[in-house]
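Give me C-alpha cells for this 259-residue protein.
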Amino acid sequence: MFKRIVHILPALCLATGTAWAAQSPFIGDWKLDPRRTRMPDEMKIVRKGANTYAFDFGGGAETVVVDGSDQKGGYGGTLLSVTPQAPDTWIVERKKDGRLLLKATWKLAADGRTLTDYFRQFGSSGALFSMDYVYRRSGAGTGFAADWRSIKETMNSPFPFQVKPFEGDGLSLVTALGKKTQNVTFDGKEHPFEGPDVYKGFTASARRLDARTIEVTDKAGAKLADTETIALSPDLKTLTVTTHTPGSSRPSVMVFERG
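Here you go.
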C-alpha cells in the first residue's frame, strides 16, 4: 500500500565540473514507459489480536486498530487508518497535517488467495498517481493477514520527470507528483529531499560506476531506504533504473524514454 515511489536520478558521463553537467544528455524531460516497467511490491500483515494488526509496507511495522480511526504511523509524522468497509474490503488511508496523502482500497478474493489493491496517491498540487496491484498470499495467515507479494502491477498514471543541473556537476530531479525534488552530487555528500510531500529525514548520495551508470543510495535518517542502479542506453535515449530495497528479493525496474 505504501508504495515506494522510486526517486529516479539520471545516469551521467564521467567528466567533472560545470561543463560536465551542461553537456549531460540527461538534462531535460523524461517519461516512463509502463509497458517495460515492473514495480513488484510486498506487504506483510500480522494479526496481533482482536482487530489489531501490524502492517509493514517496507519501512517497518506500524501497529494500528482496524476501526477507521486515524492513528500514529511510522512515516514522517503521518497518520494511518484502516477501515473495514466489508468482510472482504478494507480502506487504507495515510494523512499528514490534515491532508490525505494516499488511499488504497483492498479487495480480498473469495478464496482468500489473492488481494487486489486500488492504490491512489495525492500530490499537494492536486496531481494523482494511480496504480492497481494484484497480490498473492504467501506464508501463514488468514483473511487479510499474510505476507502478500504482487503478481501484477498496472500503472494508470503518467510518471514524467525533469532533470536539471545542480551545483556544478550535480543534478536535480523534479517529479510531477507533489513537485518533489531530489538533489545529488558526486562528492559523497547526502542531500535532503525537497518538496511539500517528502518525508523528513530522507537523503540521497550518488557515485559514478562508469560512463553511463551511476549508483544512488537513499536513506531515511541513518537507515538505508534503497539502492538504485541507473543505466543509460548506448543511444542515450533510454534510462533504466533498477532499485533494490532491503528485505525485498525482487527489484523494481523502471524504463524511461526521452520526452
